[in-house]
Amino acid sequence: MKVAIVGCGNVSALHFDAAFNSPLAELVAAVDTKPERAEKPAAKYGINAYTDYYEMLDSEQPDTVHICTPHYLHTTYAVEALKRGINVLSEKPCSVNDEEVRILREAQKNSSAQYAVCFQNRYNSCIKKLIEVRESGELGSIKAIRAFVTWRRDKEYYSDDWHGTREKECGCLLINQAIHTLDLIGCIGGDCKALSAHVSNDGLREIIECEDTASIRMELENGVTAVFYGTLAYGSNSPVLIEVVFENGILRTEGEKLFRIEKDGSINEISLKAKEAGGRDYWGSGHPSLIGDFYDAISTGRKFTTDAFSGGKAAKIVFAAYRSSELGARIEIDNTEE
């Protein structure tokens, strides 16, 4: 299948490599509004460079597009491809507001093509093992979840024309970095039915327009309470921590490591398969696995799991958190599928 990569920023390198190395894909085009950014991967991989997304769709007629653009274009570009019967793999977030989620889901339902949002941390070995242990029932039911994202972003990170802006990034910490961890809370503990949140800008007031820090108390549909804290104003990029308290023990991920804590307080690291190349220690290495799985789903006709419905749930948590903080109120989330 012919594959095009749209948006040639930092994360696109993982997409280019995965597509180029896949036996199921033929990489044909790179697209970026800045010519030099499209031309660099085009020269590296021997493909065509474009500055106009729609021109590329008309000229190349790809079977699949990877959307790695600033957030505000994700839904618009995805819907256009789906209308043409082109498969879409979009970097998160799938959308930047609830109405866009609705539009995207409708486009997916009406398309012959598949849609996926890139939540690569679902493919981390520690998360897959944690869910395996949960499903085995050996630790009993989940009682509580807590998660922490404490990273550092500085002026250099926000030196481009879209990060840190309401217009193009459409938020900061929650919609960009923390959304992965919010997605994992849902995968592990179940859908979020309501939340209370506080967002603030504690360390980057002179640099960004949106939040660098957030805390959320999430009420999951199965009665479990999950709490989240995240900041981009820390002094380091620490591994993400997710702790799941069960009736008969605790499982804790730190980066891509998994620990089991017994009732007597003893701690043991659980052996996992080696992580894949690519990505960074503090945000996971699952891109190649996710992209390979998506290509396999397309080639076999199997429905891909992390679509606009599953993948859209984390986005809806983000939007609810923004509303909760703005209104100072508990916000309920509608998880029914349109």
How would you describe the overall organization of this protein?
The two termini are 30 Å apart. The protein is built from 9 helices and 15 strands. The longest helix has 17 residues, at 173-189. Helix 4 (74-83) runs parallel beside helix 5 and helix 7 packs across helix 9 (312-327). The chain is α/β, with parallel strands linked by helices and 338 residues long.
Could you write a compact summary of the structure shown?
Helices cover 33% and strands 24% of the residues. It is an alpha/beta fold and 338 residues long. The longest helix has 17 residues, at 173-189.
Q: What attributes does this structure have?
A:
single chain; 338 residues; alpha/beta; Rossmann fold; Dihydrodipicolinate Reductase, domain 2; 2 domains; nine-stranded mixed sheet; 15 strands
Annotated CATH architecture of the largest domain: 2-Layer Sandwich
Low-confidence stretches: none
Structural class: alpha/beta
**Number of helices in the DSSP assignment:** 9
| Terminal Cα span | 30 Å
* Count of separate structural domains: 2
- Give the strand content: 15-25%
**What kind of sheet is the major sheet?**
9 strands, mixed
- Choose one word for the global shape: globular
**Nearest-angstrom radius of gyration?**
20 Å
